[in-house]
Amino acid sequence: MLRRVIVVLLVLAAGVSALWLLLHRQNISYRTLDERYAADSSHYLTLSNDLVVHFTDEGSEDAPVIVLVHGFASSLQTWRDWRAGLIRDFRVISVDLPSHGLTRKGDAEVLTTNGLAAFLGEFITELELENVTLVGSSMGGHAGWVYALDHPEHLSALVLIGAAGMPPTDAEKDDRPFVYGLVSNVWAKPLLASMNPKPLIRDGLNGAYFDPAFVTDALVQQYSDLALAPGHRTGLLTLAARSRVDAREQAEQLKALDLPVLILHGADDRIIPAAHGERLNDLISNARLIIYPETGHLPHEERADQTLSDLKQFLASLSSDEPETETTISEH
To answer: What is the CATH number of the domain that holds 164?
Structure first.
């Protein structure tokens, strides 16, 4: 009997080992990733915790400044269309967050929402930026509005795109794509930290777009490659499991935010439902909300031309005396 149990255990161990070897993927070096994804406008900045930040800096240094901050598991590549449409009139800076894109791992990263907000603060301070229009997508939007609560003096406006930060309902948790629940599971972390991220990334991207045509093999490969940068898988899992216990209290603070705010949201966003954009709009006194039909979590990609036009109209309105606070359902 004992021999039989030992044989079964050995077979199970061999099966687990074979599965691990099948799913396991090595890191991709930053040198290789730079060759694939760095741009002519790429720059690197070392912060106080030895975090080496990758960012792009385009347009005239004398122009009004826009800082673009991507969401969870994404990178500054998400802003490709917006950057091209803004650089004639603005200085456009897009940044890879810690554990994302081509930003190198630091010695003491604080991978929480408050930690990301502090990262944005040091980044903006190091570049000596003032009167910034801060644009944040998803998790980057959450970090952006937390930063704005603490340092409104550095900002002229805030733009939130499918922004996270509102406490989710139980029904919303159940409707998220499978991958978002899996990556926040602490028991799955050891396996996920070494496995090939591509299947999970494809599932996540399928849930992020309304139009499935946006989920190309090239896009999945880009996300997968950047997730395989040294330390990024572990960092992404840490961010996915970050605490949200203070979400309600933090959200209430938005009532005191004294900045012009533009909120852009996809009507068919499965990751951060459009109701969250409406709640943000209700909390922030000087906000304008635009909801785009047949659009998912990334309206700046799926509706690049229209969202860019709406952004420019919003920025032009800041010099007028009449604040725009209405909710709009865009039909474009």
So the answer is: 3.40.50.1820
